[in-house]
């Protein structure tokens, strides 16, 4: 493909990403996979160049652009080589008109910048959320130890996450024998840390209430030395269905999946009410802490959607509360940096349930924030998280 043809392809892909963000469609990574699957003629260099240009544009504009062309016109005004690609050639974009509208550069929608400021985070923290993320893996201690795996695949150990190795961005993890053999799992170091804060130990009865694909379930099982019981539940059949295969690869035998009906979680978990030693609530959220991986997510979020997430989080915390035995613990996690979903949720929970208290969270990273701990890319080099550990009297 010519540079001009690559530019037009990037415009087309950006149009699809923008439309999906506007209407709640597929994520940018999924759109990219579908886009290239339909264009087999694009070689590997073409795909890399197009994808790089698309993600540069996504990271450059806080407000959702009107079109892919408006985004690339804005980039072209400071990049002469890109501007030259608007040449009107058969497969390239039309020349840029002098007064043609262009997207406005920025970090995030204005209302979100205000929400971050109200949560104690400035523009430097927001900017770090838009950097490219490294690839972190968790060494599965049921099958290997970190030193052994590091000698095989390289990577840098992280002191605050004892099972973590940090690899280069875009490392092909799923092509490694260590992944195929269940000795490693892809998991951000921050996610590993907040999972370990739950305090899982052998012999426990644990509930991963919002298990999704099971990343934290597998981490809990490793901490429990595959001894005890884990109920991994979710309302998303598709995501939960991936857990059995992952568990088999990792050598985890103590995790049982349980598909729940939305808004009827208590009914689906009635047999374990008041019996769990540990409940982990990795709640659905705005995912503002994961923009490094999904930067177009900030184009999807609205104040109304944020309010809906907050309502679901409060309800799930109350569901989890009923599962915990006297003296047991509840760990609440969101990959969000907004207080509406983190600190304020925990404060409201403690106000509703006076027989609960917040436990100190001790970790080698993060900063105390309200009753919990907050991790950010700028301060900790991880995805953004809020985590709190609560105990029933």
Task: Describe this protein's structure.
The chain is globular. Strands 5, 6, 7, 8, 9, 10, 11, 12 and 13 form a 9-stranded mixed β-sheet that branches. A 4-stranded antiparallel β-sheet has the order 2-3-1-4. It starts with a helix and ends with a strand. The protein is α/β, with parallel strands linked by helices and 393 residues long. It folds into 2 domains: 3-106; 188-392, Vaccinia Virus protein VP39 (Rossmann fold, 3-Layer(aba) Sandwich), CATH 3.40.50. It contains 18 helices and 13 strands. Helix 1 (3-23) packs across helix 2 (28-37) and helix 10 (189-196) crosses helix 11 (215-223). The mean pLDDT is 95. The longest helix is centred in the first third of the chain and has 21 residues, at 3-23.
Brief characterization of the structure:
The protein is α/β, with parallel strands linked by helices.
Shape: globular
Number of strands: 13
Mean pLDDT: 95
Q: What is the oligomeric state here?
A: single chain
- Number of DSSP helices? 18
> Rounded to an integer, what's the Rg over CA atoms?
22 Å
CATH class bucket of the largest domain: Alpha Beta
- CATH architecture name of the largest domain: 3-Layer(aba) Sandwich
Q: Stretches where pLDDT falls below 50 for ≥5 residues?
A: none
Strand content: 15-25%
Counted up, domains total: 2
Distance between the termini: 66 Å
**Class by helix and strand content?**
alpha/beta
Q: What share of residues is helical?
A: 40-55%
CATH superfamily of the largest domain: Vaccinia Virus protein VP39
Largest beta-sheet details:
9 strands, mixed
CATH topology of the largest domain: Rossmann fold
């Amino acid at each position: 493909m010519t540079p001009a043809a690559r530019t037009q392809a990037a415009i087309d892909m950006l149009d699809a990403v923008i439309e999906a963000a506007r209407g709640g469609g597929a994520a940018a990574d999924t759109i990219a996979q579908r886009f290239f699957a339909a264009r087999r003629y694009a070689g590997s260099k073409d795909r890399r160049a197009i994808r790089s240009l698309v993600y540069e544009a996504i990271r450059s504009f806080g407000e959702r652009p009107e079109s892919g062309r408006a985004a690339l016109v804005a980039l072209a005004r400071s990049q002469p080589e890109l501007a030259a690609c608007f040449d009107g050639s058969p497969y390239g974009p039309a020349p840029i008109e002098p007064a043609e509208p262009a997207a406005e550069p920025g970090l995030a929608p204005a209302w979100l910048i205000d929400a971050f400021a109200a949560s104690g985070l400035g523009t430097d923290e927001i900017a770090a959320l838009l950097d490219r993320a490294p690839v972190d893996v968790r060494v599965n201690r049921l099958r290997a130890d970190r030193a052994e795996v590091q000698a095989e695949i390289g990577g840098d150990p992280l002191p605050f996450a004892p099972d973590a190795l940090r690899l280069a961005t875009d490392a092909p993890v799923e092509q490694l024998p260590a992944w195929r053999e269940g000795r490693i799992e892809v998991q951000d170091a921050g996610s590993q840390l907040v999972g370990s804060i739950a305090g899982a130990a052998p012999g426990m009865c644990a509930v991963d209430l919002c298990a999704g694909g099971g990343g934290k379930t597998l981490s809990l099982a490793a901490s429990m030395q595959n001894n005890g019981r884990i109920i991994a539940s979710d309302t998303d059949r598709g995501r939960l269905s991936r857990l059995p295969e992952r568990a088999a690869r990792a050598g985890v035998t103590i995790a049982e999946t349980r598909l729940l009906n939305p808004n009827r979680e208590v009914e689906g978990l009635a047999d374990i009410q008041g019996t769990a030693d540990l409940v982990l609530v990795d709640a659905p959220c705005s995912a503002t802490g994961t923009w490094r991986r999904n930067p177009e997510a900030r184009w999807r979020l609205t104040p109304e959607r944020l309010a809906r997430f907050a309502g679901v989080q409060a309800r799930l915390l109350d569901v989890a509360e009923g599962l915990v035995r006297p003296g047991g613990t509840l760990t609440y996690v969101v990959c969000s940096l907004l207080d509406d979903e983190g600190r304020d949720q925990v404060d409201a929970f403690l106000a509703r349930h006076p027989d609960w208290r917040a436990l100190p969270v001790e970790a080698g990273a993060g900063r105390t924030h309200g009753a919990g701990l907050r991790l950010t890319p700028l301060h900790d080099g991880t995805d953004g998280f809020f985590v709190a550990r609560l105990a029933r009297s």
